[in-house]
């Protein structure tokens, strides 16, 4: 008798790896937002909920592997096959919840740094479509059998209860549509920051650094694209064995979505680490870490009303919680003398809070750099 073919360990390895990556990324995000930025917002809570759901997904997937996910029906006892199918059903539930919250977190994060009305409308539209189709996919897959438990009890000998399930072709079709919208929304969230950053008047090097950081949320769409080729496996009679690839890439999608969405918020942590390394390497003679931290300007809220500005001011257009992008309104045109050792510039920041039209506004004015 030959060895029993089992692809369960493949799913286990992927699940453990992606869970670790997502968990570490989220921990770094929480550290950055709570201790460095000191602003733990709604997008952070959504990602925490996504992580909790992902943990439950991985737990169900691992228990499913124990009972038979990854093996042929012919190699399993009916009771074990039924239990494995039950945990597969629970994976449907946690997968949908994880993806809804993780995508909502990324969309909400972008809304906090985007000011342009058209871009905000696009983000709202992409976010709404993603959440709507996520909810539809959730309802269709979770309620595909009536009663719900018939999804797994139908495998038991002498089925204890009658029931019906949707045609599997409907499940495949809805999965194709959901995956397509998921990819579209991911790339929408990735492309908008590119236009956002590229229009700013800043060094090209800084733009090159910021664009991939803000666009990391689209990484998960790679897993979705790969999964397209396996969706037809849903109709394979040997379900637990044939759908392992779907399970693997769905796990990858969730883990990468959480990790990428979290890494996109870590720029303040990277800058703090860079300042620390610079100090330790002896390059802090001219600029220590506390001086560097003063260059990181975080604004809690930016009014979107058009206001007159002094020609000497630098207006921060897009700075929210953990992304610091400065748009130069106007620089003074006359040339400045520099000594042979270089000039050290210092800026004084003046916060002014004002109440206008029942709207709370905060504006940062940066005075003219002084040279010494």
UniProtKB/TrEMBL annotation:
Name the membrane topology term: Multi-pass membrane protein
Residue ranges for the region (Disordered) are 329-372
Q: Does the keyword Transmembrane apply?
A: yes
The protein's matches in InterPro entries, at most eight in alphabetical order, are given as:
Rhodopsin_dom_fungi, SAT4-like
Q: What is this protein called?
A: Rhodopsin domain-containing protein
Q: Which residues form the Rhodopsin domain?
A: 28-272
Q: Which Pfam families match?
A: Fung_rhodopsin (PF20684)
PANTHER family (alphabetical): INTEGRAL MEMBRANE PROTEIN, PTH11-LIKE INTEGRAL MEMBRANE PROTEIN (AFU_ORTHOLOGUE AFUA_5G11245)
Alphabetical keyword list: Membrane, Transmembrane, Transmembrane helix
* Family stated for the protein in its record: Belongs to the SAT4 family.
List where Basic and acidic residues composition bias occurs. Answer: 356-372
Name the principal localization, coarsely classed. membrane
UniProt entry tagged with the keyword GTP-binding: no
Localization per record:
Membrane
One GO CC annotation, please?
membrane
The organism's superkingdom is given as: Eukaryota
- Could you list the residue ranges that cross the membrane? 14-36, 48-67, 87-110, 122-143, 176-197, 209-230
């Amino acid at each position: 008798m030959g060895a029993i073919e089992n692809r369960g360990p493949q799913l286990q390895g992927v699940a453990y790896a992606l869970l670790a990556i997502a968990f570490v990324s989220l921990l770094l995000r929480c550290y950055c937002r709570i201790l460095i930025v000191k602003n733990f917002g709604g997008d952070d809570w959504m990602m925490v909920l996504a992580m909790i759901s992902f943990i439950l997904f991985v737990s169900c997937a691992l228990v499913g592997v124990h009972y038979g996910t990854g093996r042929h029906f012919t190699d399993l006892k009916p009771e074990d096959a039924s239990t494995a199918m039950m945990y597969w059903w629970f994976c449907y539930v946690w997968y949908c919840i994880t993806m809804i919250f993780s995508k909502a977190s990324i969309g909400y994060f972008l809304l906090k740094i985007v000011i342009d009305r058209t871009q905000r409308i696009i983000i709202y539209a992409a976010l709404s479509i993603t959440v709507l189709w996520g909810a539809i996919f959730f309802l269709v897959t979770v309620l595909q059998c009536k009663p719900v438990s018939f999804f797994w009890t139908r495998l038991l000998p002498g089925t204890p209860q009658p029931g019906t399930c949707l045609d599997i072709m409907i499940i495949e079709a809805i999965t194709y549509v959901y995956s397509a919208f998921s990819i579209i929304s991911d790339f929408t969230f990735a492309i908008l920051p590119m236009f956002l950053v590229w229009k700013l008047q800043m060094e090209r090097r800084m733009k090159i650094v910021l664009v991939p950081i803000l666009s990391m949320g689209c990484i998960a769409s790679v897993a979705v694209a790969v999964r397209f080729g396996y969706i037809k496996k849903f109709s394979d009679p040997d379900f637990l064995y044939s759908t392992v690839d779907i399970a693997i890439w769905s796990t990858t999608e969730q883990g990468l979505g959480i990790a990428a969405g979290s890494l996109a918020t870590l720029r303040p942590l990277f800058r703090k680490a860079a300042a620390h390394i610079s100090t330790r390497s002896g390059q802090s003679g001219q600029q220590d870490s506390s001086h560097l931290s003063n260059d990181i300007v975080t604004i809690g809220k930016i009014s979107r009303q058009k206001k007159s500005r002094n020609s000497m001011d630098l207006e921060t257009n897009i700075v929210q919680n953990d992304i610091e992008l400065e748009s130069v309104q106007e620089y003074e045109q006359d040339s400045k003398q520099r000594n042979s050792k270089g000039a050290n510039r210092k800026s004084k920041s003046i916060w002014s809070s004002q109440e206008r039209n029942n709207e709370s506004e905060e504006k940062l004015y940066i005075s003219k750099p002084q040279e010494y």
